[in-house]
Automatic annotation (TrEMBL):
The keyword Transmembrane helix applies. It comes from the Archaea. It is a multi-pass membrane protein. It comes from Acidiplasma aeolicum. This is Glycosyl transferase. InterPro entries: Ceramide_glucosylTrfase, Nucleotide-diphossugar_trans.
Length: 360
């Protein structure tokens, strides 16, 4: 009986420590870094395009109609025959063909390096994915933090708006983890769908940047190497219309996770520790609460806080969102294991070897 009692006490102490850790994570966040100043530098907005994204015409219209005094938008395509060109030409947006010479870079990085090389006289460069839909204030909000001396990157994170079935709802909730990571300075990263940086960031690092598969992980590493700050601007948040089905969602989620793990293996180990702890706490609360003592149900508080934070970000709640939130630790764990085994990813119709970081 004594051994049983000691084991029970140890078990409860572990549950308490894990629970308190998750409560601290859910309740202590730096929501954003909205900055107000008069910093309005000459800016180039670079929009790599490959194929026709969902709502592409609406997306491009939003990017080129900004309340900002001195900016130029340029699209970059692999070929003048790209299907996106008909919409680009219709909107009369400048377009260049990607021709930067790099052996290991992705098509997106090649496009960005092409634009930077052909438009060298800008103080600030902005990356805008072709699948984002933005407000007219997006560019101004995104750039203002760069007026601070120690700023390296100004970035945001999207709201994945579901325009499909259940799995587009899952992607909506999946994206909230990215928002949560952005809200804490310790886990913040540059998101390449909407990211601004000064040209000086690439001083002595241009060749390094142009040899990478992932633009955002490279820029994040450069900023950290230079001891510069990463700013998260929530009010610059774009919308990404997401029509994914089950197969499309998992292909996307595994690819995003694989790119993160390729940038740092620690992400896999931290992720496994985090989500296994979360599931341990969740199942302990359910089973011990039902079969031993209802007080164990109090260990569901972190899950409740997570759902409440999701509702805060959504400003609404639906049964699909709650189900997706409950499933999310299991989905992320599957993503981590599958992504960790991946040697290649398919991105915009191309296959990349993420172990050797080259195009196949």
């Amino acid at each position: 009986m004594l051994i049983y009692f000691i084991l029970l006490v140890i078990y409860i102490i572990i549950l308490l420590l894990v629970s308190l850790g998750f409560i601290l994570i859910e309740t202590h966040k730096n929501v954003n870094d909205d900055i107000e100043n008069n910093y309005r530098p000459r800016t180039l907005v670079m929009i790599p395009c490959r194929g026709v994204d969902y709502s592409l015409e609406e997306n491009l219209k939003s990017i080129i109609n900004q309340d900002y005094p001195d900016y130029h938008a340029v699209t970059i395509v692999d070929s003048p025959d790209d299907p996106a060109c008909s919409i680009i030409n219709k909107l009369k947006i400048d377009c260049i063909v990607s021709d930067f010479q790099c052996g290991k870079c992705s098509g997106k990085v090649r496009a960005l390096c092409t634009a930077i090389e052909k438009y060298p006289d800008y103080e600030v460069y902005v990356i805008a994915d072709s699948d984002i839909l933005v407000s007219s204030q997006w560019l101004k909000y995104l750039i203002m933090p760069l007026g601070i001396d120690n700023a390296g990157i100004s970035t945001t994170f999207p709201y994945f708006k579901p325009v499909g079935g259940f799995w587009s709802r899952v992607k909506e909730v999946w994206g909230f983890v990215g928002m949560g990571l952005m809200e804490a300075k310790l886990t913040r990263f540059g998101w390449g769908g909407s990211l601004a940086f000064k040209k000086s960031l690439l001083n002595n690092y241009f060749d390094y940047f142009c040899s990478n598969i992932s633009d955002d992980t490279a820029l994040t590493k450069i900023a950290k190497d230079k001891n510069l700050d990463l700013y998260y601007v929530k009010r610059a948040m774009p919308v990404v219309n997401s029509p994914e089905n089950f197969e499309q969602f998992f292909e996307w989620a595994n690819r995003q996770t694989a790119l993160s793990i390729a940038a740092s293996k620690k992400i896999f180990y931290y992720g496994i520790l985090f989500y296994f702890s979360y599931m341990f706490l969740f199942f302990s609360a359910i089973f011990a609460g039902i079969f031993y003592n209802k007080l164990f149900l109090l260990f569901l508080i972190p899950e409740i806080l997570y759902i409440l934070n999701m509702i805060r970000r959504l400003n609404k709640v639906s049964p699909e969102n709650v189900i997706a939130a409950i499933l999310m630790p299991f989905i992320y764990t599957v993503n981590l294991f599958m992504a960790n085994r991946m040697k290649n990813i398919t991105w915009r119709g191309r296959v990349y070897n993420i172990k050797n970081k080259k195009l196949l």
